[in-house]
User: What shape does this take?
Amino acid sequence: MHAPMRTCVGCRAVRPQAELLRTRILLADDGEQVLVVPDEYVRTCSKRHGLSASGRSAYVCPARACLERAARRGGFARAFARKTPAVDPAALWRAHEEALAGKIDLLNRSGGTAAAARVQRLAAVATAMRAAVGRVS
Ligand SMILES: [Zn+2]
Assistant: This one.
């Protein structure tokens, strides 16, 4: 009905949240160690590294160009409202691809109609990512 809308930190386009890649930031208590990860990795990464997730998220279109622009122009630091280590756009892109594939796989195995609807939504994002790879400028 009323889909939540978010702004891409790369191109500033406002799109439904479900169509965007969500990136989070994990922090050590002293603020020294910082990890930038796909939202899907927050739980495992925070446990593994003893970091806590900031409440803030950065959203980008499923387009490599948007992610690269965000990394280059400080879009992540702005979204996280703090100094952020240099984000490697290629690595983050790959992490998002893997996270998405993993989530789809998990949902497929869990089954059910709610899962099927989510899989459809996530598959659309994955398709957009694959289509976008050729358009890197
Ligand atoms: Zn964008």
